[in-house]
Each structure stands twice: as structure tokens, then as C-alpha cells.
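Q: Hi! First time asking for a complex rather than a single chain. Here are the components, and I think there are two in total. Is that enough to go on?
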Amino acid sequence: MKIVVCVKQVPATTEVSIDPETKRLIREGVSIEMNPFDTYALEQGILLREKHGGEVIVLSMGPARAELTIRESIACGADRGVLLNGRPLGGSDTYATSYILSQGIKKIGDVDLVICGKQAVDGDTAQVGPGMAAHLGWPQVTYVSRFVESGPLELKLERMHENGSDISLVKLPAVLTVLKDVNIPRIPTLKGRLNSRKVDITIWDEKDLETDPEKIGLGGSPTRVVSTRKPDARDKHTIVLNGSASNSARELVQILKSRIEL
Amino acid sequence: MKLTDTEIADNYNDVWVLGEVVDGQIHKVTLELLGVARKLADKRASGNSKVVCLLMGNKVNGLEKNLFYQSADRVIMVEDESLKYFNDLIYAAVVSRLIKKYKPEIVISGATSKGRSLMPLVAVQIETGLTADCTGLDIDEESGLLLQTRPAYGGNIIATIKCENHRPQMSTVRQGVFKAVEADNSRTGELIREGVLEEEKQTRFTVLSEESYGEDSKISLHDANIIVTGGRGVKSPEGFKIIHALAESVRGAVGATRATIDSGWISYSHQVGQTGLTVQPKVYIACGVSGQIQHLVGMQSSDFIIAINKDPDAPIMQLADVAIVGDLFEVVPEITKLMSN
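A: Yes, that's all I need. Here is the structure of the assembled complex.
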């Protein structure tokens, strides 16, 4: 089974903030990590390879330093990695990004399965997985919570939605997005770490990918961010109760009862 | 598809809502979206922008009335046995074909798991842009373009996004962001029926069976007038007992922060915030919640916020209408006792 796992390098979101003067994202000193949801996709790829044989190829689009995230995936057990990197690819929205990644998958060739995390924690869109499926013309299975049965040609999967779940069959090749429920990701071994330093990472740019220049980067993106701001601070007066627990509770209940009756 | 200004002005008019049906009923988010779709359509200077709801399923006949009451001018109904389960590929093929046929200017859908699976497929199939999880939708008076506002980077940034040269402009919106309009039972509208083509039913994906949780805690979180949420300050699974007790005394639902879920103290279905649910109850009681931005984006539109925390400087205390400085293990049982009387 030839499995591609898509990973994204993201800033640790709890550390992100905006410079109050320039209104720009403060990037300095913010640590980067593999998108946490992608670790489950990677583990699932490795589990399927252990069962069916084949190889796990990690695919990422991003700056040169995203190579670190690919090496981390190899340390966990992926076989090799491909980084899609080039200045014209920058500024891509989810439409353009999913197009570029789908070109990477076509160039890798003979891929049976693409696995992604359910979403990346920086953009939180969950659009790139389905976008790739549409560009490739393959079926997609999103929000996968369990691999019920897996064969080389077909997978039986459980999907979760807000008020239930379903069981489905998908014929490969297909694109999956997985939830945390699918597995418990392994930790890199020492041997894996040593190996990950030696492996050559394949780097492809827009020419290697033969992308349509009209469909990549800022210019090829249908959507455009026109402005950014800090979230609204709620401009309100807060009633502070800092007496004894019983006094505070009594005062609050008075306020609360008037609210509930409304 | 990339279009010229004339092509856009000449052809693309209406505001579409992709309707969703849950257990035979119109999903609440669909009604909320009809409310905002009405505002958007009324703001379009052309004056002939209609609110259209596309409703698909195996048993949807008769549901159109409610959509008209809630401000739809037209309902396009696709009723077919092949739509019984959610097969993304069949749904997307039909939606893409109908968008090409009717050329709406704006298409919005709930940011439910179905909406978030279907919309990105459709957007790529018809070659247009899509903005996920919008918290604000408006029409730019000058250009007439849809202004799509959404949080990014864990809610640390609010971005405004446009889709200028592609149509339709597409967005998903979470439940609870907009409010449904009052139902007007005298309203009626136009009903159009469409079908599923045979070739659209041939996919390499099949749903075999479906299981519904029924009265799920997530739904009650959405429906609850009062939500009592426990944060890290609750300290343990046992700590949630006093949260449950307070929720019970006020007939409310129990919410939780991501930290408590990651610690395994309570199930994921209770999560409020960026990676959980967005809620908008009348009263939100946050107990031992510090107020990280990821949590705040999921509850800050609540009508009335009460925070109980030892730390008077915790971010949640600034956002709250009433901030109680104290130990939740002392304060919460006192409130429960008084509310039970």
C-alpha cells in the first residue's frame, strides 16, 4: 500500500499574539510544531503499512524549515518525505493549497491512500483534505474515528458527526481525514531519530509540480484576507463579588433569578 | 471559475442556504442562516436577490413550509432515496450541478461535520473560494462583495476575507453565531423540485449503516438556556460532580474546557471553544475557567456571563458580567443550595 500522509508545520497557537502597534502577527520566539491532528494521520499510515506492507510518504507544503516536521515524521516511522516549496506557492488559500498538494500526490504516483488530520490548528478550516479529494477526483471520508476493517483495495470506516456515527465502505484510492479517536501516536525511537537525520528529503517547486500558474499562490487563490484585527474586548462593567462564599452566592442568586425570569 | 465583472453582475443573484435535516427536522443552524441570508439579500443593491434554501434528503417533503416561515423566498427540494445517508460525493455532485444551473451569488452552510465535508468539495468542483467558520457576514456597501469574518490562529486574530472574482462566494458558519428570525406563518414561497442523476449515484463510497445518539449532550448544550462550565480549577473527574449538581439545579447543561477533556475528566461532547462548540446561552457560568482565548471564542456571545475563580486577574473575570473571586468548591455548592430552594 502506497500511503501519503499530509502534515503541516504550525505555530503553537497558545503563543500567537498580535503586535498592538503594527497589528501584525508576532512570529519571533513563537515555537513551531507538527499540527497535533496530523500525528494521528501519521500513526494510522504507519499502522496500515505494518499490516499491508508498502511505504509511508510524508507530504508537506511550506517554508524550508518545514523539513524539520518531515524529519520528525520519519523519526516516528515514515519512510520518506516530500516538501513542496517555492516562492510562487506562498500565500495560497485552501483552494490553491489543495491543488498544489494534489499535484504532489500525482507526481509521487500510484498512491493508494492519502491521510490527513481533521484540520490544522492555525487555520482551523478542515478544507484542504476535501479540496485534495475534489482535485484528484477521489472519494473522501472525513472525520474518521475508527478503522473497522482494512484491505488493500477497500476500507471499512466509522465516521463521527455531531449526533451520531456511521459505517461506510470506500474503494481506494481515497482521501481520509482522521480524528484523535483513531489511535494513540507512537513516540520516535532513538534509531528512528538517527535515521531521520540521514534521509534525503525530496524538494519540489512549482516547476517540478507542473502547476498551472493561474491556480497557485496569492494570485491563484479565490479568497483574499483584506484585513486583520484583534478580537473585540468586551466593553462592559463587571460586578465583582469578593466577600465570603455564602455572601457571594446569595448576591449572585439574586441577580441570576432576575435573569432566568426574563 | 474566475469571472469578469460583467459576467458577475449579469448572472449571479441569489443567496443560498444549504439546508440540513436532523432526525426529520430542519437543523437549527439552517434557520439561523436563513436569518442572516435575509439580511444579506436585502442589502444587495440590485434589489432582486432572493433567499433560497436547498434542501436535500430522502424524506424532506413538507419541510419547506418552515423554511418559508423563516424568510426563504424559494426552496429547491431534492428528495431521493440515495440521499438517505450522508454520501458526500452524491451530495456534492448535486449541489455543484444546481449551483451551475441557478448561479447563486452567495452560498452558506452550517459548519457542521456535514457542511464542513460537503462545502470544500463543492468549492473545488465549481472552482470558487470558501471561508470556514465565519463569525460575521456582511455586504460591503461599496463593492457589494460579501465580507466574511473569521477567527484564525486559535482565535488570536480576526480576519476579514473576500472572494472577488469567483462566484458564488461561499462560507460555512457555526451554530449559535447568528439568530433565527421570528417565524412568520403567513409567509409562503416558491417550491422547485430537482432530482439526483443516475451517474451521480455511482460513487466509490457507500454508507452501510448509521447510528444516532438521540438526545446527545451536545444538542442539549446548544439548546440550554444556562450552561455551567468546569475548567482546570475543577481539578478532577470528581470535581465535576458539583458542576453537574449546579447545572441540574438550574436545569442547565454542563460545559467543559479543552484542558479538562484532554485530562480525561469529562467527555469531548461537553467541549466549548475553538475546537469544540460555539454556544450562546442566556446565562453562562464558568467555574475554575481561566479564560484562554480558545475557550472565549466559543462562549463570548452568551447574554450573561458569570465567572467563579480564585484569581481576580484571570482573563475570564474581565469578560464576565459578574466575577466572583473565591474557591469554586465553596461557592458553587452554596449557589446550588440556594437555587434548589
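A: DSSP finds twelve helices and 18 strands in chain B. Let me know if you'd like any chain examined more closely.
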